[in-house]
Amino acid sequence: MPSFTVFKGTKNGIEQTKTEKPELKGDQVLLKVTASGLCGTDLHYKNADMVLGHEGVGIVMELGPETTYLKKGDRVGWGYEHTSCGHCQQCLKGNETFCPERAMYGFADLDQGSFAHGAVWREAFLFPIPEGMSDEVAAPLQCGGATVFNALHQFNTQPTEVVGIMGVGGLGHLAIQFAAKMGCRVVVLSGSDRKKDEAMKLGAHEFVATKGLKELKVERPLDRLLVCTSAQPDWELITPILAPGATVYPLSVDEGDFKFPYMSLLLSGITIQGSLVASRYIQNRMLAFAAQHKIEPILEKFPMTKAGIEEAMAKLEKGDMRYRAVLIPQSE
Ligand SMILES: NC(=O)c1ccc[n+]([C@@H]2O[C@H](COP(=O)([O-])OP(=O)(O)OC[C@H]3O[C@@H](n4cnc5c(N)ncnc54)[C@H](OP(=O)(O)O)[C@@H]3O)[C@@H](O)[C@H]2O)c1
Ligand SMILES: [Zn+2]
Ligand SMILES: [Zn+2]
Questions:
Q1: Residue 245 CB-density burial (10 A; 0-12 exposed, 13-18 middle, 19+ buried)
Q2: Which residues form the Enoyl reductase (ER) domain (predicted)?
Q3: Which atom number of ligand 1 is nearest to the Cα of residue 275?
Q4: Structural class in CATH, domain 3-143+278-329
Q5: 319 C-alpha vs ligand 2 centroid, how far in Å?
Q6: Where does the pLDDT of residue 331 fall: very low under 50, low under 70, confident under 90, or very high at 90 and above?
Q7: Which of 90, 136, 178, 258 is the right S-S partner for 98, CB 3.0 to 4.6 Å?
Q8: 153-183 pLDDT per residue, tens
Q9: Single pTM value for the model
């Protein structure tokens, strides 16, 4: 029976323990984890009683009886969604992230995650890593990359449009690269100007440091805005720089209600579009696009140990990560 080290969130911090799984059945695959990203969403679960991590990359070690295309030694990634029913309207449309029977991080399979030495997942929900892309580069793409690419790609962003990216963290620094490579004009909104040089190097055309400003100014109004901050922004500040007919994609995981300047919504015909990670179809396209255009996260590596995870989480929480932590399992 497969058994592997995992790292859980608990009330008292990170705990190292073991998970044991039954013999592989159906299209299950046993993976040896080689790298895991640390996403902002993991911070919400650090005191939950569950194994953490949902930006995993690993090597196929064993295959269940009904697997069809993977073979031992293949490199694959996985993200937020573990399985879905496969037969509902959403699954049939390729929107399996909205399947009523979806199994997702934080809600299902709490005994395993990517902060681990191993994992057992369905072959149907694994993503082959393109040749030439390293495991540590591929890891943050499994959630962070997938989420921002989805918001751009699923809703048909055009190269002639101005795309705003608010928040230059794990998601935001990838979103700048994707939007720039899609040919858009990219306007970055960031708390301070500390990240300006890097944002411009990643492909931004304009950078606005928002802190202390009562009014924002941009050269051309935004047709789309991806909100990649870890908390909801001040929408009053943002609405004046949106173009008529603009779409806002609030990606931040935050508690409480969404409160938006109501008359701006009407008078400018604004659309608010929720978006959650990516379907498998879009995730595969994202990986191919990232490989072709050399879109890579800027990484800080940490050992995947209790101390390493705690250090990485503390740094992310303080806002000091540049720009995505990747945890590397240590040999036992
Ligand atoms: N919808 C989805 O499917 C999905 C998927 C993944 C993650 N998420 C969520 O997306 C958000 C970003 O994730 P991430 O991994 O990129 O996090 P991150 O690396 O912590 O980046 C968040 C960025 O937000 C800004 N920020 C920090 N503290 C803030 C505050 N108190 N108020 C407003 N802005 C703040 C900072 O950017 P500046 O310094 O530039 O201001 C920071 O770099 C999180 O809420 C995460 O849970 C959603
Ligand atoms: Zn995530
Ligand atoms: Zn379904």
A1: exposed
A2: 9-327
A3: 1
A4: alpha beta
A5: 16
A6: confident
A7: 90
A8: 999 999 999 999 999 999 999 999 999 999 9
A9: 0.98
